[in-house]
Amino acid sequence: MKKIKIFTIILFFCSAAAFAGCKLYERVVTDHQPPVISGGEETLQISVADTEDKLLEGMTAEDDRDGDVTDLLVVQEVSGFDEEGLRTVTYAAADRSGNVGYYNRTIGYTDYQPPVFALSGPLRFPMGTSFNICEGVTASSTLDGDLTNNIKYTIDRNVSNSTTGTYQVEFRVLDSAGQTSYLTTELEVYDPSAERIDVTLNTYLLYLKVNDAFDPAGYYGGADREGTLEIQSTVDTSAAGTYYVDYIVSDGQYSGKSRMVVVVSE
Fold first, then answer.
1. What is the DSSP letter of 16?
2. pLDDT tens for each residue of 134-170
3. Which long-range contacts (CB under 8 A, 24 or more apart) does 69-78 make?
4. pTM score, whole prediction
5. What is the residue-wise DSSP string for 182-199?
6. In sequence order, which residues have a C-beta less than 8 Å from that of residue 68 and are 6 or more positions away?
7. What does the angle CA 81 – CA 209 – CA 147 come to, to the nearest 5 degrees?
8. CA atoms within a 13 Å half-sphere pointing along the CA-CB vector of 145
9. How far is Cα of residue 140 from the mean position of the Cα atoms in its chain?
């Protein structure tokens, strides 16, 4: 019995020593250190047209066991804009043991512009017909290109196509950098029996800066009947805001109207 106890004690100490040895070996042999990423100490200035390769220029990744692992370096994500108009790029690189290192770098754009809207026609719809409020409204961004499918809108009340009326509508669109642009304007339902002349314009939405020159006559496209043109403009380029220019053509018997929206910004 005494021999069994001694054997058990010896076996216990051997097992404990073996376990401790395995743990020590694991700590020594197993790689727990992620790669170190470097090269982005200064803010990187890029163009909206630059690809991801531009974000990786000058960046390196070094691992204490695997050596240079720059070829495994990737852009994990790019944040939205901060208050200073800058974004943060998060890089990641993995070694052969699966350890992942991360690094953040600040980037700025030399040519970024927020999304803008465009109209292919006036926001006027004939009474008694079905229409889509977003019909003819598009949006684009220097960063993302076409954003038309991202357009959302709110309107001050339910639109009725059974009676004439004017509605306040706000369109908005968000780009991939988290910037939202808005277009607040009017939508009109009109009586088609009172308007028999089709009036077209060269553009239906115009963006101007404060104090830009503006000649509303230069945007008149024409009409499908001869008549007298009357231009009614509320545009004041000395102050930021949304304005309207109505182009009304009359021939003594019939008339027609088209509208251009003018957005003046700082």
1. H
2. 999 999 999 999 999 999 999 999 999 999 999 999 9
3. 69/35, 69/93, 69/94, 69/95, 72/35, 73/37, 76/102, 78/107
4. 0.81
5. EEEEEEEEE-GGG--S-E
6. 60, 61, 62
7. 45
8. 1
9. 9
